[in-house]
Amino acid sequence: MKAISSIALLLVFLTPSAFAQWQLQRDDSSVNFVSVKSSTTAEVHHFKKLTGAISDTGAVALNIDLASVETNIGIRNDRVKSMLFETSTFLQANVTGAIDIEKVASLNVGDSYVETVKLDLDLHGASQEVSNEVQVVKLNDGKLLVSSIRPVVINASSFGLEPGIEQLREVAKLPSISTAVPVTFNLIFVQ
Questions:
Q1: Nearest to 21 by CA among 44, 54, 64
Q2: Would the CA dihedral through 132, 184, 83, 63 be positive or negative?
Q3: Which domain holds residue 40?
Q4: Mind listing the pLDDT tens digit for each residue in 81-107?
Q5: What's the rounded Cα separation, in Å, for the pair 123 and 159?
């Protein structure tokens, strides 16, 4: 029995990449969202500052710096920060969840699998669980890609964001801005 325990322990040390923590590669990762104004004009925006990790148990944590929002128009960036996200009070959005770390450990470079994950989104002082199908791909150089297969639709009313959207609509003199926002992500982690 002692020999079996020793062999199991040795195997763990021989395959550290299977159980090591993964750190988000900010420059290679993206979280994008689409806004729709006037019922027909859609624009893609993103966040420039992300941090996160996947633990050795598969727990995923992603932190989005809301003040790093990029809409490609400076004044709109400022308005989204102050009127919508209220970054003076709410600095980050936090996403937590878990992936199947045993499946990750069994992947060879180039292999992938799909799983449905439950994510807890903490945004603007409110928290909600959302489900999404993700694809997990083992890349070269100890990297892992986790990406959304379909957009996650975030409803502004679930996070108290409707008043901010209304302020943005008024200041931009638009007939409408959608309160349902599709979000996609491509996250690269490295051990």
A1: 54
A2: positive
A3: 19-190
A4: 999 999 999 999 999 999 999 999 999
A5: 6
Mean pLDDT of 16-25: 72
Rounded to an integer, what distance in angstroms lies between the CA atom of residue 1 and that of residue 20? Answer: 27
pLDDT for 20 equals: 63
- Look at the chain and count its residues: 191
User: Coil, strand or helix: which one is 108?
Assistant: coil
Nearest 5 degrees, angle CA 51-CA 57-CA 60?
25
Burial class for 179, CB neighbours closer than 10 Å (0-12, 13-18, 19+): middle
According to the model, what pLDDT value does residue 7 have?
38
**Phi/psi at 126 (nearest 5 deg)?**
-125, 155
More confident call, 16 vs 103: 103
- Are 31 and 50 within 8 A, CB to CB? yes
Q: Which amino acid is at 158?
A: S
**Total tally of structural domains belonging to the chain:** 1
| pLDDT tens column, 29-58 | 999 999 999 999 999 999 999 999 999 999
**Where residue 99 sits, what CATH number does that domain have?**
2.40.128.110
How far CA 60 is from CA of 24, 76, 106, 133, in Å, comes to 10, 31, 18, 15
Closest CA to 83 of 186, 163, 191: 163
